[in-house]
Amino acid sequence: MIMNNTLFFFSTLFPRILRFLPLHFHPFFFHLCYFIVLSVIGFLGLKVSNPRTPSSPNDLDLFYTSVSASTTSSMVALEIELFSNSQLILLTLLMFLGGEVFTSILDLLLARNKLIQNKLRSINPSSLSDESPTNATHIELGLVSIPHPIPQDQTLSDNVASVRLKYNCLCYLTYVVLGYFVVVQFVGFSLVSLYMTVVASARQVLRKKDINVVTFSLFTVVSTFASCGFVPTNENMMVFKKNSGLLLLLLPHVFLGNALYPPCLTLVLTVLEKVTRKQEFSQLLKNSNNLGYRHLLSVYRCCLLVGTVFGLNVIQFVMFCSVEWKSEIMEGLNLYEKVVASLFQVSNARHAGESVFDLSSISSAILVLFIVMMYLPPYTTFLPAREEEDDAKRKRKSTVECVVFSQLSYLAIFIILVCMTESKSLKEDPLNFNVLSITLEIIRQGILNFLSFCNILR
Q1: How far is the C-alpha of 161 from the C-alpha of 145, rounded, in Å?
Q2: The domain containing residue 416 runs over which residues?
């Protein structure tokens, strides 16, 4: 009976729900309902499963953790080691389903159904009625059928062909994103599991904490790819700061699921277009802005994004090493371990949120730098990207105007510089020298006049 009801739901009700939602709900409300339902289910799962400790955690803390995992916010109200193996797997599932790449797949499914319904309704409103099961079947197959009699108007025929091509593009893009999503995390999970099994020092850490190797590998890879920042240890990645191999295996996932996801997706589409020679892949690369998938950027924009991400990480790495190279947080690490740990830390500061050093021991200048980097959206580009359709506007916009920073950016730069020069005073006299007082003093001493001058140069 249960099996029959399940089959009835997925064969009849679920397709109707997908066809109903795009036309009657704004995507914001769909995402809101999705995350609410996911968080509630996660909370109930955490509630019924048994934790490691005999005492049960507070319900509010469990719900807060569920919301944080499903929205990939990386905020936790409980020590992560209090959760049992089954609870860690549940949190992994929440991060898996709440990641931005996975939710973008749901957006593609909704866009597909919305496209077909709108176009069919414009052609013939009766084609959306419940008495037309043949049309629903054709919709699922990606074939737009026009009820008899077939119009002979060439414009209508071209419109149908355009709809069919766009629908096929969305279908191909959905499969590519799903394949990318699964393959990247499966490869990462396999490599991390192999590393944790082979390297005795890393395996010993999990054995002391009674954490399953498979659970740790899956949890950490999914969390890193989703930019959540959860790690099954209370110390985050600080206990593995000497395991440079593990940090290097996780480092690509910091970018593949975040800032470098559009360039990687474009690269996959380019390879598929070269191999298959299909028109759909060519359309995806040429008309990326017309599909409504915000993660699909033009090749030119992807190149600028790669350059920006690389440049920002180099700046962070150089500044972090210049300030913290001989500090207490680097004690016990050799040259190679310092380089890898520093690279992992600065990359996670803007993206995934994992930490290999104690943030409370990092200097104020670097913390301000991390705050600025976290403030920047993932697809920010600081290189000249002049894509206006108006030729006159394109000519008026100079290269200097493309790369000039905002006023807040200049303030942040000066605050970081002062914190670096006054690092000794910040440690010895924190009452008079702190980030807040330095910020107020910089603003008061006339930096705003300099910003006004920079604004004139625009």
Answers
A1: 11
A2: 380-458
Contact 181/265 with Cβ under 8 angstroms?
no
pTM: 0.77
pLDDT tens digit sequence for 8-57 = 444 555 455 555 555 556 677 778 888 899 999 999 998 888 888 777 78
Q: pLDDT tens digits, residue range 125-136?
A: 444 444 444 444
Q: How far apart are the first and last CA of the chain?
A: 70
Rounded to an integer, what distance in angstroms lies between the CA atom of residue 428 and that of residue 99?
43
In a domain, 454, yes or no: yes
Per-residue b or e along 358-387, where b marks 16 or more CB atoms closer than 10 Å to that residue's CB: eeeebbbbbbbbbebbeeeebbebbeeeee
What's the CA gap between 380 and 24, in Å, rounded? 33
Considering its fold, how many domains does the chain have in total? 1
DSSP letter (8 states) at residue 241: T
pLDDT score, position 383: 61
> Does residue 189 lie within any of the structural domains?
no
Q: Is the dihedral of CA 79, 85, 90, 93 positive or negative?
A: positive
| Helix residue spans in 242-385 (DSSP H) | 244-256, 261-276, 279-286, 299-324, 335-350, 364-375
Asked if residue 389 is part of any domain, the answer here is: yes
56 within domain boundaries: no
